[in-house]
Amino acid sequence: MTLKFREEAGQTSVFIIGATVVILLFALTIAAIMSVTLQHRKLLSLADSSAQSAATSFTLEDPEELSLTITPETARHQVIEHLEAVDAAQRFPNLRIESVRVVGDTTVTVRLSATAHPPIVNWVVPSGVQVVADSTARTQLAQ
């Protein structure tokens, strides 16, 4: 009995092509993750500035004692004005104000959401990835 060995010429090329495809897919995944992370950081910065803007929309209840209060309506209105002033709707697709809460008369918590569209891999996630950012700001007066 004689064993016939088949030719193995060209097997290295198949391995190199396969490894290249895997490396490219890995690089595209990393690029998509970084894009979504960058969009989240930008949205977090916007939420920070919105919360700070809302926290400064206080009214003095008693000027003698420096007691102040922030109403939920005033805070929400200030967040909307701030987002319009910085033209946030143009920079963030599907930007939404999820919530604006006032805690303890001086603390404002803002939650914003938007959609991040990672480059190149839009065919995998055509509707994008929703990112959410929460921020809190407090106003305090001192004598």
Total helical elements:
3
Describe the biggest sheet?
Answer: 3 strands, antiparallel
Low-confidence stretches: none
Helix-strand makeup class: alpha+beta
Average residue-wise pLDDT: 86
Give the strand content. Answer: 15-25%
Span between N and C termini? 102 Å
- General shape: rod-shaped
Q: Give the strand order, joined by hyphens, for the main sheet.
A: 3-4-5
Quaternary structure of the protein: single chain
Helix content: 40-55%
Walkthrough of the structure:
Helices cover 44% and strands 24% of the residues. It has three helices and five strands, in the order H-E-E-H-H-E-E-E. The chain has helices spanning 11-55, 72-85, 88-91; strands spanning 59-62, 67-69, 96-103, 107-116, 129-138. The chain has a three-stranded antiparallel sheet with strand order 3-4-5, covered by helices on one side. Strands 1-2 form a two-stranded antiparallel sheet. The N and C termini lie far apart (102 Å). The longest helix is centred in the N-terminal third of the chain and has 45 residues, at 11-55. It is α+β, with helices and mostly antiparallel strands and 143 residues long.
